[in-house]
């Protein structure tokens, strides 16, 4: 069953330097406008269950997640602040990317984190797609960029995000994780 693509509008700024780690290796992109990063999503057993890309698009970061082999239903999907994904719990990814020190969720009057995204809807065949545009953020560079000195990760949770409970949306265990690195 093909699931709908969720799209929400936003904005960001092009940065100058990206630095992230993938499987304990550090990557640095010193090009004037590091414009795309990608991540391979893996479950706790190491099986590939999807991919994600983050691309600078004008003054926005466009995130696309394609998942396969996940349980059917709605799952919280977030950009996390640290580019590490140690199984089984993926706690090394840290909390949600939150350079503006907000609370969690689009429905929280004190929210939302930059890493907060809509739930990804997974069909009976285990696949789902999510597209989201992050506003007021930059992929690389200084001043709270997503790809700062310790990188960033994309995490899929076991349950749906309620869009208001701080700090994680009450979305449950982390079931898949991928480190953003050079595309």
UniProtKB/TrEMBL annotation:
<keyword id="KW-0732">Signal</keyword>
<feature type="domain" description="Superoxide dismutase copper/zinc binding">
    <location>
        <begin position="49"/>
        <end position="179"/>
    </location>
</feature>
<comment type="similarity">
    <text>Belongs to the Cu-Zn superoxide dismutase family.</text>
</comment>
<dbReference type="GO" id="GO:0005507">
    <property type="term" value="F:copper ion binding"/>
</dbReference>
<dbReference type="Pfam" id="PF00080">
    <property type="entry name" value="Sod_Cu"/>
</dbReference>
<dbReference type="InterPro" id="IPR036423">
    <property type="entry name" value="SOD-like_Cu/Zn_dom_sf"/>
</dbReference>
<dbReference type="GO" id="GO:0006801">
    <property type="term" value="P:superoxide metabolic process"/>
</dbReference>
<protein>
    <submittedName>
        <fullName>Superoxide dismutase</fullName>
    </submittedName>
</protein>
<dbReference type="InterPro" id="IPR024134">
    <property type="entry name" value="SOD_Cu/Zn_/chaperone"/>
</dbReference>
<feature type="signal peptide">
    <location>
        <begin position="1"/>
        <end position="18"/>
    </location>
</feature>
<dbReference type="InterPro" id="IPR001424">
    <property type="entry name" value="SOD_Cu_Zn_dom"/>
</dbReference>
């Amino acid at each position: 069953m093909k699931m709908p693509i969720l799209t929400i509008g936003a904005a960001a700024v092009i940065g100058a330097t990206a630095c992230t780690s993938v499987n304990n290796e550090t990557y640095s992109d010193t090009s004037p406008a590091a414009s795309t990063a990608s991540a391979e999503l893996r479950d706790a057993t190491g099986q590939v269950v999807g991919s994600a890309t983050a691309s600078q698009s004008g003054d926005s970061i466009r995130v696309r997640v394609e998942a396969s082999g996940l349980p059917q239903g709605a799952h919280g999907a977030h950009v996390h602040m640290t580019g590490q994904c140690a199984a089984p719990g993926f706690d090394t990814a840290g909390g949600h990317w939150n350079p503006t020190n907000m609370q969690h969720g689009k429905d929280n009057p004190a929210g939302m984190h930059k890493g907060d995204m809509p739930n990804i809807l997974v069909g009976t065949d285990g696949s789902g797609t999510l597209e989201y545009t992050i506003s007021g953020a930059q992929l690389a560079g200084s001043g709270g960029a997503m790809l700062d000195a310790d990188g960033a990760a994309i995490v899929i949770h076991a349950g749906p995000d309620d869009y208001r409970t701080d700090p994680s949306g009450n979305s449950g265990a982390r079931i898949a994780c991928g480190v953003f690195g050079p595309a």
